[in-house]
Amino acid sequence: MKRSSTDRLLTWNFLRMCIAHFLLFASLYVTLPLLPLLVEERTGSAAEHGVWIYGAFAAGMLAVGPFHAHLGDEFRRKLVFVWSLLLSSMAVMGYLYADSFWQMVLLALWQGAGFALAVVGSLTVAIDITPSHQRSAGNLLYVWMARMGMMVGAWGGVWLYMLFGPQIWAYVAAGLSVPAMLLGAGVYLPFRAPIGVPVCTMDRFLLPRAWVPALGLTMLSMVAGLLVPLLATGDECPLMALGLLALLSVPLTRLFVRLSHHCQRGTANATCYLSTEVGVMMGMVMAYRETDAASLHRDAVCWGILAMLFFVLAVYPYFRVKKVR
Description:
Radius of gyration: 19 Å
Strand content: under 5%
Largest sheet: none
Shape: globular
Structural class: mainly alpha
CATH topology: Growth Hormone, Chain: A
Distance between the termini: 28 Å
Helix content: over 70%
CATH class: Mainly Alpha
Order of helices and strands: HHHHHHHHHHHH
């Protein structure tokens, strides 16, 4: 029997959100690896001091997450994605006009908050427009788009910096957000009446049952973060690390989803995404405290070995006991 268009995964609405999701991550990673250098140029602070920017970004991501489910319940879900991405883009442009270190920190806090809401909003919309029997396949394709956006954005941002200096990429990052917002705004979602979600809840944000895999994924993502600054030197290891992280995203997403109960698929996905971003930023914080490529390679190998041991000795046994799917 021929399936109707509503049963297909690759509908035009889903493709819109896939492209928007790719652009969302490309926009972030055009900016993220080079923020300490921009701090140095705009404020005169040493690049090493710019690592506080990553802490502020992570704090913004974690601070707003518990409020997303309420926002998605009270307002149109695709508009939560669009407006959050707009706020994040405004913070990126604000970097070009900040003239003090603390202004940069506040902008990073703002950008992190907008990015986290946009990511969770994007996941929510994608799940809502995907037929229930296609959601596992949809999740895997969606995470692939995010990781490809991460790779393209990181490489593209460093390339732009090498050719045009440390400011042009801010315009590129903000520019990538525009088609993402337009694509998200054009998605059709049927009306859904509010169901009274609490103002603060971990639903659609963090899955407590997945804390052990989240820790392991954070450690693994630190390897890529440690190597990302080497993109500017022509080193191919960062792209290899990002590519490996992209390949591992599929089985890791399955792992997180299989730890979730009914109606927690979106929460599991958000936990997987946020663990990856926090790990990458922690790696970049450590990278800017090192002085040479050999030290970065050594640290990346050490953290990679620790992450693999943690997955074998802690994550896999935990998963065997706790999985529900």
